[in-house]
# Entry
Amino acid sequence: MVLAKFVEVGRVVKINYGPQEGKLATIVEILNDKRVLIDGPTTGVQRQVIPIRRLTLTKFNLKGATRGARSGVLTKAIKKSDPFAQYAQSIAAKKVAKKALRAKLNDFDRFRVMILRKRRSALLSTQLKSLKKNAGGKAQAQAKGGNKKK
Amino acid sequence: MPAKKRTVRIGNWYKSDDENVHFVRKRKAPRPAKLRKIVPGQVLILLAGRFQGKRVVFLKQLKSGLLLVTGPFKINGVPLKRVNSAYVIPTSTKVDVNGVNAGQVDDEYFKRTQAQRRKNEQGFWAKRGELTAEQQTAEKTRLDGKRKTQKSIDDALIAAVKKTPLLKQYLGARFSIGKTTRPHELVF
# Structure
């Protein structure tokens, strides 16, 4: 596996520890092998020095971020091409959103999810049975999309 | 108001008649327990008793502080019932109770009658106290009246419950904790 995510100026990172946990920011300057300066003017992260240990690198880069760029410069670059919006489309971000949604479910919601999952599984199993019967066991099970699970 | 006297061990010490009891607390009428943000129509989860885990609809708070709830009976078998709010989890699901009139139900409704007390009084091995004919008819009319109140309240409720899909099945199901559920993280 080739290393693809580098700690570099412009790298979009996610803070994974501390009061700003979960927020995105951009690396603005590298201070030493352990600390960087990050800034997230559009995501509510104050310009700060932070140890790399507290960051998760994403695969996105902010184009136009120069070393030591000030918040205004960064904001302009973000306006041109927004890597944070791209990140929101990524699977990692969607997983986080799903987890947050599931944590918010109330008792009735959880009951509804359970019923829907049972219905979907029932649909899948009937499909599977009919496919097996028709193709004499050789067919590959095609999962038919049932209700969209939360 | 009877003063609370401390029991004294029989010994050499006998209280004199004119001795003053030090401090008598005036017994006040019981204050209804403060309702922690439970609203009529809210679905509650019962935590104790025969119906533990059942989800019921809250109707109103009675003067004694207990909560009046109903299954509705047809949905999950819980009748009009008084429940202590400490043994209840309020969920955020609400049923529309605008058409429900629970006005005639109060603590008196749940009081044991003479006939019921007579039935229970004889003890396990003895033959149950039998009711006279008029007591039996009185019982019958009482129970019929209860069935009617239950039905009148429940019919309005069930009509409201049917409007939300899956709500009827939700009320019919019991709440339970599995191996992986973390109750402190659950949002109700």
